[in-house]
């Protein structure tokens, strides 16, 4: 296991949502510090070719929003994306004015947006929830509901074949309410870890809480179970990432406001042994961060975007007013970088790394290898994808 490369020049995004479809990663929306997040415009879509490590900007990003707002999602953050077949389903999220409860679908084959009509008990609009796929169901848990002004307390699912929403009657003791947690499906279980909750103090003030317990939902009976895991358990955190590789769950990075710390560590949970393990990974890792995307494709994991403490201001933060918002521009810096973790680096990949390390590029005679070296180590320059989208047909 090794961090094999890092590249600048990708989309600078925070709280975006991303999925893998074949060898491509599609990332949707998010925000960048300093941008106007109250303005309504079309959600931008960027595509990463995980073979060439090159980014493109999909032309649907530039469709006029108010001419297509019946089928186009507005740009947002704190939403989720899941893939079912060749279609990506976007749900939830918000801009600085409102959150959204409309389902949107992006067809990766026809390159167009639709807003499928859904029936049933449509959940209240929210952000900071989780969504994952089990069979033909999109499972939605947690998050913060804009209308009620509270954390969501229920679990719901959308049947993607019938486009019908249902609430799950609770069985067992459910996890505490939370947002910006992670959830992954392994076999017939949905595992939930981390997130930000709240606890009432003796002065009746709501304080943030960070739980590092692991829970799973038995998807055959829709019953919650608390996992009494062993090993080195990660500290509670929010805005981290989780992914599945070889039937194991991995947790990366995140933030805990109670200790004012960002993380760049990675943990592995093995459901078969019920053991957590902190991983020691070779190579140069990403810096401490939160709100990044972390997507696995084959043996590789692609980490991109997110935000970190501003290194220029970090040293000066001791003299900044303690009441200063931890999200202010001067204290955080957003990222446009991408890091690639390889669980099983090939001899070819290791050779390319050695060529770069020892400045041997000029001695490489094969044109294809020169191209691969350039793709693997040269900064990105986002290009516009063609052909044009099909949304003009409605």
Automatic annotation (TrEMBL):
As one GO molecular function, the record gives: chromatin binding
For this record, the Gene Ontology CC terms, alphabetical, are:
cytoplasm
Top-level taxon in the UniProt lineage: Eukaryota
Pfam families (UniProt xref): Kelch_2 (PF07646), Kelch_KLHDC2_KLHL20_DRC7 (PF24681)
- Protein name, entry field: Kelch domain-containing protein 3
Q: Which organism is it from?
A: Brassicogethes aeneus
